[in-house]
Here is the input.
Amino acid sequence: MRSGGTMDGCGSLKKFERSEDWLDEIKRCKQRETVPLNRVPSTQFICVRESDNKMVGAIQVRHELNDYLRDFAGHIGYSVRPSERRKGYAVWMLQNVLPYCKSLGIKNVMVSCFADNEGSRRTILQNGGIYAETVREPRKGKLLEKYWIHI
Here is the structure.
């Protein structure tokens, strides 16, 4: 990402040169039979502003949790384009994927954010997040707050 953002919630977008390859990966991740090794089935949503057809964010729902997701990342990851932050898109995206989570049979959704990410914390809390614990994420070595949203 040119802006230096983490691109959470975009699946593996940053590893692809072509968006078509990323879209192919999204299709593979929807089904257990085709999901890449060490990943879980997931559904990718892209938030596009209707007025100018601009992608403003992305949110990914992981249908289940593996060890890493259970310990750190959770069921949902999301990201908003830096120029579009603080406009309510993350709150709206999270609010609108919770019914989808429920349709998958997920009753308690785990969502996490780095302790220094005040915007993400507010997004989670505005959607009913209940603080669970703070842990140190091993890949980045940063403190990570874990929350549960009961749906």
Summary: The chain has a mean pLDDT of 90. Residues 16 and 22 are 6 Å apart (CA to CA). The chain is about 30% helix and 30% strand.
